[in-house]
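Section 5.1 Outputs to date
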Amino acid sequence: MHYTGTIYRPPYEANTPLLQVTVGCTHNKCKFCSMYKDVKFKVSPMEEIEEDLVELREFNPNIKRIYLLNADPFVLSFEKLKAIILKIKEYLPKCESISMFSRISNIKSKTIDELKELRSLGITDLYTGPESGDDETLLMVNKNQTSNDIVEQCKKLEAAGIEYVVTFLNGLAGSKRSKMHAIETAKTYNQLKPTYTGTGGLTLFPETDLYKAAQTGEFDDSTELERIIELKTFLEHLNTDTYILSHHTSTAYIEGKFPENKQKMLDKLQHAIDNYDEAKHNHHRNSTHTL
């Protein structure tokens, strides 16, 4: 298989076969991320993709789901994605579901009709990872997107029947804007219908610009307790139908259908706040080595 560098995939895709169609990240400028810092973006040649499909077929000809690598393969044009999907179906005819990461900007170049066709061909869901729905925070961490962009593009996915996942990275705004970050993100996500909403806690990695900003005092990093309070504030203001699932970077784990389990989650977070164990939460954060 042609895999370049460290392989990153959502934890929920642990058992899904991985097919590399791009390398690196098209944006690669988010201040909190170092995953593809030294990896130059490129598109995999179709010859390599075919070679990997042959290998996957030999491994299991009955594969029903494929996950496409790397950071944002959905940046590929409609025509390129269609060609790759048809090639997947040629080698793995039983494949029914294809997923991948997608930046919000990747969706902009595709019409609703094109998205509908991609859905009919097998792209069933995308991991969009906005991290925040708060414009000030999005600007500060250089996500290169706005809350309006998130709503507009995700609604296109809904119109096309493509399911998607959003994320809330609590702590991303820092300590001073923590509450507003939670409220504004909930306000944005309340306009959406994400299948899953992942929650995680900001971890400052030494290779990132945000880590350097924290070292110089330009970024007021939240405490672990502040992150839990921020997560609780986010859920208090969130009302959309979704499924909440915590990421491994979160020190307060919650999971369940929302809003049916809203009060149960709030109670669990309040218990964590009331019985806060700083050493335990700091140990978890210090043991986190990657997004």
